[in-house]
Fold each of these.
Amino acid sequence: MKITPVLIVDEVEKSLTFWVDRMGFTMVTNVPEGERIGFAILAREGAELMMQTLSSVRRDEPRFAPEGIETRGTVLFIEVEDFADARQRLEGYPIAMPERVTFYGMREIGVSEPNGHTVIFAAKAV
């Protein structure tokens, strides 16, 4: 089984600076929507993430489009092997949840990606 999150976003391009430039994902495919990107698949180390614009979802499958214009609300919990690498990639980026160690033994740090979705990077605390 494979689960791939699809983030509904205002603009795919706005999130590419975070996911590709900062976090090291590669855009493996994209579908144009006029002059912009309407859908993209990103990958890194076996992980996959899809992004689709709200306008594209409304055209493709309107019943899956969020009510109104709000596209935020997804929380991604990403367990990484190398927490120091994730922390370094976030250097200078606004941190929404400061680094912490949880009662369940995970070191975590959280941010909001440019389209407003919450992303928590975590690794087992040693």
Amino acid sequence: MYKSIAAGSGGSGSSLRVHLVSEQTRRLPDSIRAHAGASEALKRPDFKREPGELVVVDKKLALVGIGPRNGLDTERFRKIGAKLVKALDRLGARKVLLDLESLTERQASETSFGRALSEGAVTANWRMDLFDGAASKQPQPRGKLTLTSTNKNFTNGLRTGITLGDGMNFARKLAATPPNVCTPTYVAQVARSVARQHEDLTCSVITYQQARRLGMGGLENVGKGSASKPCMVVLEWKPAKTVTKERLALVGKTITYDTGGYSLKTGGGMRGMKYDKNGGMAVLGAMKAIAESKLPMRVVALLPAAENMVSSESYRPDDIITMYNGITVEVTNTDAEGRLVLADALSYACRKYKPSAIVDMATLTGGVVVALGSFCSGYWCEDSTLRGRLERAATSSDERIWRLPLWQDHRDFMRSQHADILNSNPRREAHPIQGAAFLSYFVDENVPWAHVDIAGTSSRESGNDMMPPGPTGWGVRLLYDLAGSYVS
């Protein structure tokens, strides 16, 4: 693998030219045919021109397949990038010029194809190396790979894709970091480090004691049983120049480990619960990409970080807690903890930042996995304008979402006999919708809001060309494109 991947400018000095060919390509351009053996390589019976398949002509030229021209889309270019970077690594290539020929006609597709290719390359190039020890047999990274293109629009897309791929890998690295290292305090330290690297990005942290004084009963109670106390991380992107008065708020569930609390997870259900922070990690990765791209609008991110542990201090089923906005909650299940920390963050965002729209992202329910599997994330949004933005962002990012209903009946289903609402209705009906219905009580009625449940998409049990089993960084691209829709 490479230590890093960057986008170059122009084709000068590139040591390897990679010419993209489709199944329909019959004749190479004169500049390519000038290489001895190029035409013969194109006609080799074992070169099927499948997406990402590479054949070397000489030290200066290689051909890579893109499959049939029909149906050529960004997802295929992402797979091409993933396979290509592994082939380039085997060749030891350091500088690569991607020659598109005339495979794309519109500027929009050229840019998006370039972005998708580099997203695939960057995500496929990553592995979790933070804990390589004395027994590791992994080779050292090769160094930097520089990608450029003969097409300016494609090169611009490469730059954006590298930024997003890096943001996804950043989220994946934090997601994979184990709970004995990645505590709420650690998340705060990482967020501060990200802010220091970007001039217009600031980070503040609401400590456990401050959260208690502010009345954040959800955050306090979920995390108070742990020796690593909870906190709320707030990142604000405030560029000097903006092109819109809109302000977007992003909230990410950041449960650094979830035992279930006194509603203890059983059997193997606790394994992998370090991924219960993946919503927050996706938000953090998106903020990193937004800052690096210098997006000209204000964005605030809130990460309510807590560890759901069992101790004499832990909250219990039957407890009644008062939330930041004054709503009382009867706890029926301490394993429905994510919505409690999100609730305080949502109401705090509404009161403190008066956002034009707010989106929360969370690994919230197993029910959404049953309903939708790993094929897409479920989402809830009753505002048509925000819904349109989200769905367009899902299309451009290839991070698919599917809308589920949120009716007054669902909200009424969360009513409690002894407090205002329940954190989980013991009747399991509409299980994934219960989480959204609960959260709706903590968003001001005049604020457009969407809840995205990524429980099925934020990690994989099996690998593919782009990534091995483990965290996916899902949501970074979606949130980046959503923010970008306000300024495009």
Amino acid sequence: MPLKRIRLELARTPEFPEGSPAHGYEFVAPLDAKGHLESREWTESKGACTVRRFWARDPEEHGSLIHRKDGSWAFSYEPGDDDDEPIFRFDRHLFVEGEYVTVTEHDGVARPFRIARVSPAVIRR
């Protein structure tokens, strides 16, 4: 199953009423033909399932898409749970452009993100 690069951009919030393409995530994950996350395929390709968090003028953060023991998904930037950013019902989302997902960020706030782009991932080895 081919890996996809998914770009999430901040959706409308009180702080950003129009949303913001300068705030978001870009990550790599295996998706099925309909756009659902494939956890079995993730197991085989988890080393390639990376995430990049970009937040306007803040430094970028780089980490991994992880599948936790409790079955939930998160973005993780360092070993341990302290920095993990859980993703609400990640395995139930349809990853197609225009859909929305919610990520609970470092500050504990759950923010909405719009799926701005889904494209084939080019993995450099």
Amino acid sequence: MMNRSELREQVFKLLFRVEFNTMDEMFEQEELFTTTGDKEFTKADADYIREKYENIAKKLPEIDAAINEKTSGWDTGRMAKVDLTIIRLAVYEIKYDESVPTGVAINEAVELAKMFGQDGSPAFVNGVLAKFAE
């Protein structure tokens, strides 16, 4: 079984694929991701990853609207794809997932930005998400 941080990292990696695939193609991407990736998932982990990804995907229009509302001058179309994906995941957790405290969502997002983003990513992600914590 993976811990919450590891699961979140996998959700991020799957969610990132929406930048390169249509929503129709994403059904196949989910299947590929949870069955043929470099990681072996338990059924419970695979189910968790897919369910959380699907919950986020359903809310992407609202999530993006919320991000655009909070970030003047930085709409989602101009953000680096990695940063945007991390922010989308965290905003979902802050707004819709009561099992994740806001502080945890932000800290975990900053950690993902350190792992996958560029030099300025952790500060950028933290700055955007701080607006959701107010």
